[in-house]
Design a protein that fits this description.
Protein name: Exo-alpha-sialidase
Distance between the termini: 36 Å
Pfam family, one: BNR_2
Radius of gyration: 20 Å
Keywords: Plasmid
CATH architecture: 6 Propeller
Helix content: under 10%
Shape: globular
Oligomer: single chain
Largest sheet: 5 strands, mixed
Structural class: mainly beta
Organism: Adhaeribacter swui
Strand content: over 45%
Domain Sialidase: 111-242
CATH topology: Neuraminidase
Number of strands: 29
C-alpha cells in the first residue's frame, strides 16, 4: 500500500505532538501537591509517607501524603526567613530520620535554619542555625541527607574563607536539634568553587557520606565528589567526575544529584554544556540526553533519572531505551517509596505537582 507525502507528514506531526520532542508520553496521573509554591523537595519516611517542603516568598511550607502520593494535606506554614533563598535550585531541603522530619532553609543573610518535627506530632520546633552565630552561607545553597538512627548530615556553600565560596559540612546526632562545628570539606585552590550551583549530599547507615559540588578550576566548571568514611568527621581529597571537561567563564546554576543504593554504591547525574550525564566515581561518564536540572535515585530495579528539557520534565526509568515525558514544568526532584516505586515532584505554572514514575 502506498501513502502520499502529505499523509506521512500528518502522521509524523501527530506523533511529535503526542510523544513530545524526544520521548514517549507517560500515562500516569499528575497530582496537584499545592496550588502555590516554588522549589519543592521530597522525602519518604519510615512509614512510607511522602513529605514535601517548598517555599513561597519568604515563607516555608510543608505537606504530607499518607496514600503513596495520591493526595496531599493542605500546606502547613512552618517558618519564615528574611531573604529566603528560593529559585535556581535554591530552596528549603527535607530529610527524615528514625524519629524526626528535618527541614533546612538557607537565606541570603547567611544563615541556615533547621526545623524539626517529631513523628506523630504536628508542631514544628523553633529553628536553630546550623552555623551557630555565623552568617557565611550567603549564596543560599544547602543539601541534607540522613544516616543511621537520627543522624543528619548537611553540606553548603560557605564564604568564611576570604569571602570566597568553599564547601563546608556539619552533622547532627539528635535529628537536627544540635549540630557539630562546621567542617571544611573542600577549599578551592584558585580562590573559590562555582558560586551558583547547589551541592548534593548522600549518606548510608555505615558512616559513608558523599558530597558533590561544581568546582571552578583551570577555567573549567566540572563536578567533583568528596567522601567521608567516618560519618562526616573527615573527608578525602575531592575527585573529578567523568573524563570530559566544561570550559566556562560563567555559572550554569545546575548542581545535579548524587545517590547511593543499598550496597553503598554511588551514582551521580549532572549537566555539562547542554547534556545530562550519569557517572560513578572513577568511571567514564554516560550521556543521557539534552537537558538540565537533573535528579537521581537508585532503586532495587536500577537508576531513575529525571531532568528538565525545555518546558518538559523528562524521565529515564531503568531498562528503558529512551526517555519519557512526565509532563511540563521545571526543576524536578525524586524520592523512592518503600515498594520501590519512584515519585517525582516539580514546579508547574506556580503550582507544585507530583507523579509516580512508570
Amino acid at each position: 500500500m502506498k501513502y502520499s507525502l502529505t499523509a506521512v507528514c500528518f502522521v509524523l506531526l501527530t506523533a511529535f505532538l503526542y510523544f513530545g520532542f524526544s520521548g514517549k508520553k507517560s500515562s500516569s496521573t499528575i497530582i496537584t501537591v499545592s496550588t502555590f509554591g516554588k522549589q519543592p523537595t521530597v522525602t519518604i519516611d519510615k512509614a512510607n509517607n511522602v513529605k514535601v517542603v517548598f517555599g513561597q516568598g519568604e515563607e516555608i511550607f510543608y505537606t504530607i501524603s499518607k496514600d503513596l502520593g495520591k493526595s496531599f494535606t493542605s500546606p502547613q506554614r512552618i517558618g519564615k526567613q528574611t531573604k529566603l533563598a528560593l529559585g535556581m535550585t535554591r530552596g528549603p531541603q527535607i530529610t527524615t530520620t528514625k524519629d524526626f522530619t528535618i527541614v533546612a532553609a538557607a537565606d541570603h543573610t547567611g544563615k541556615i535554619m533547621v526545623y524539626r518535627l517529631k513523628n506523630n506530632k504536628s508542631k514544628w520546633s523553633q529553628p536553630v542555625n546550623i552555623l551557630n552565630s555565623d552568617t557565611t552561607a550567603k549564596e543560599g545553597f544547602i543539601a541534607l541527607a540522613s544516616g543511621k538512627d537520627n543522624v543528619v548530615y548537611a553540606a553548603w556553600l560557605d564564604m568564611r574563607i576570604a569571602d570566597k565560596n568553599n564547601i563546608f559540612s556539619s552533622y547532627s546526632l539528635d535529628g537536627g536539634k544540635t549540630w557539630s562545628k562546621s567542617k571544611l570539606v573542600y577549599k578551592a585552590p584558585e580562590g573559590g568553587i562555582c558560586p551558583c550551583c547547589r551541592p548534593s549530599i548522600t549518606a548510608d547507615q555505615k558512616g559513608n557520606v558523599y558530597v558533590m559540588f561544581r568546582n571552578e578550576l583551570k577555567g573549567s566548571r566540572d563536578m567533583y565528589v568528596a567522601h567521608s568514611k567516618d560519618s562526616g568527621k573527615t573527608f578525602s581529597p575531592a575527585q573529578k567526575l567523568g573524563l570530559g571537561t566544561w570550559t566556562l567563564k560563567a555559572c550554569p546554576m545546575d548542581g545535579g544529584a548524587i545517590a547511593m543504593d543499598a550496597s553503598s554504591k554511588v551514582g551521580t547525574s549532572w549537566r555539562r554544556e547542554n547534556t545530562i550525564y550519569y557517572a560513578e566515581p572513577g568511571s567514564l561518564e554516560q550521556k543521557i540526553a539534552e537537558g538540565k536540572a537533573s535528579s537521581l535515585v537508585k532503586t532495587l530495579k536500577g537508576n531513575y533519572i529525571v531532568w528538565q528539557q525545555g518546558n518538559n520534565i523528562m524521565s529515564l526509568p531503568p531498562g528503558k531505551i529512551g526517555p519519557e515525558v512526565l509532563g511540563t514544568g521545571i526543576y524536578p526532584r525524586l524520592a523512592t517509596l518503600l515498594n520501590q516505586q519512584v515519585l517525582s515532584v516539580w514546579e508547574k505554572e506556580g503550582k507544585i505537582v507530583a507523579k509516580i514514575l512508570p
